[in-house]
Write a structure and sequence with these properties.
Helix content is 20%, strand content 32%. It is an alpha+beta fold. The protein has one domain: Holliday junction resolvase RusA (60s Ribosomal Protein L30, Chain: A). The model has no long low-confidence stretch (mean pLDDT 94).
Length: 121
């Protein structure tokens, strides 16, 4: 089966900004809620093929400005696909790669999901 590609016109929040403490309770930040909501709109109705046992995910982030660590962006992307109902759980992701691309004034995230036969090499 072919790879599934998503092109989101937004940059994921850093793992450092996913949660905020409000009145003594941890809550998703507004930035995280907005990112999850937008991903849900773009994923609408798309599901990972049932025949795929595991997934490999390649993430390309085109930030509006160079900042942060690339590894801090992965969790928001994987969690957003889980919350959008694309797959049952991101624990089925066996491989992830993430890199920054060119600076994009508007910001952009491209995610390619492909089948992985085994969780281990």
């Amino acid at each position: 089966m072919r790879d599934i590609i998503f092109d989101f016109p937004i940059v994921p929040p850093s793992v450092n900004t996913l949660w905020r403490i409000e009145r003594g309770k941890a809550r998703l930040s507004k930035e995280a809620r907005d990112f999850y909501a937008l991903v849900k709109l773009f994923v609408r109705g798309k599901r990972a093929p049932r025949a795929w046992r595991y997934y490999a995910v390649d993430i390309l982030i085109e930030p509006s400005r160079r900042s942060g660590d690339v590894d801090n962006k992965i969790k928001a992307v994987l969690d957003s696909l889980t919350k959008a109902g694309f797959w049952k759980d991101d624990s089925l992701v066996a491989a992830v790669s993430c890199q920054f691309g060119k600076i994009n004034r508007r910001g952009r995230t491209i995610v390619r999901v492909s089948e992985r036969k085994s969780k281990f090499l």
